[in-house]
Amino acid sequence: MTRRGAFVVVEGLDRSGKTTQAEIMRRRIQEGGREVVCIKFPDRSTPIGKMIDSYLHSQSDLDDHVVHLLFSANRWEFASTILSYLEQGKLVLCDRYAFSGIAFSVAKSSQTPISTEGHLESSLEKLSPITLPWARAPDSALPSPDLTLFLDISPEVALTRGGYGEERYEKADMQKRVRNVFEEIGRQVSANAGEAGDGRWVVVDAGRDMSAVTEEMWGHVQPLLDGVDSPVGRLW
Ligand code: T5A
Ligand code: NA
After folding, report:
1. pLDDT tens digits for range 148-174
2. Which helix (H) or strand (E) element contains residue 220?
3. 160 alpha carbon to ligand 1 midpoint, in Å?
């Protein structure tokens, strides 16, 4: 029986180098003669993706719950595509996934509300903060990665990298909260990983130079190049 492809997710704070590293990884896998497909969330090309893009550029305002559900819906738009690539034996390399969805929404919700003297927005926020269990729910049953590489970087180092600060969430205090939620998610994922190490969450120090980060990531991806025997799992 032919093996299915592996599902590898690259996660991390803004400007941790996810897209750069995913592209280096894609080239390396291809040069080795293996089939690889890169996908990225949010995928801004669909109608839902365009709504997300407009929100991220602060061109539209949406309730936090709505935004969360849009990011999740955007992943569901590609769920069957991911499964079919994996069935074709291709390695799927995914730049951000459900973990970003949870981390950013929960971090945003834990922000100290600005005093607006009882304005409707602030009382709504108090009534319905986005909790971790609430945030996890819409992504439940999506294809589950065989490996998640979390590119860890301090918000201070991220700040020194190109392009930081252009989008809605690219503020140091927000990034600190995001990093804390990611840590909690990492603990939960690790607790549920299989005995053979499937579904692992690996923290990679992304504050180093590019080639050091690439080599460490490669060490984790290499064992998955020949595919995976077990069926694709589902998120929580
Ligand atoms: N979001 C996302 C949610 O709120 N919910 C969700 O469900 C999802 C999926 C956009 C926002 O959406 C949020 C999270 C985000 O705030 P995005 O489209 O992935 O998400 O964001 P991008 O702006 O495309 O990418 P990032 O900001 O996350 O950057 P990357 O991909 O981590 O970093 P990269 O590779 O573009 O590199 C940034 C810069 O650093 C340099 C690169 O050359 C580049 O200039 N660099 C390094 N410099 C020094 N040393 C290294 N090791 C370096 N690696 C890269
Ligand atoms: Na990116």
Report:
1. 999 999 999 998 998 777 899 988 899
2. helix 210-221
3. 13
ipTM of the complex: 0.97
Count Cβ neighbours within 10 Å for each residue of 169-179 and write b for 16 or more, e otherwise: bbeeebbebbb
For ligand 2, the distance from its centroid to the CA atom of residue 229, given in whole angstroms, is: 30
> Ligand 1, closest atom to CA 97?
9
Distances (CA, A) of 159 to 124, 156, 171, 216, 220: 32, 5, 9, 23, 27
Domain 7-228: homologous superfamily in CATH: P-loop containing nucleotide triphosphate hydrolases (3.40.50.300)
- Which residues surround ligand 1 with Cβ inside 6 Å? 12, 14-20, 41-42, 56, 71, 96, 100-101, 104, 161-162, 167, 169, 209-210, 213
Confidence class for position 117, pLDDT limits 50, 70, 90: low
Residue nearest to ligand 1 atom 3, measured at CA: 101
Q: Report the alpha-carbon distance of residue 22 to residue 32 in Å, rounded.
A: 15
Is it the case that residue 192 has pLDDT exceeding 80? yes
Distance 40 CA to ligand 2 centre (A): 8
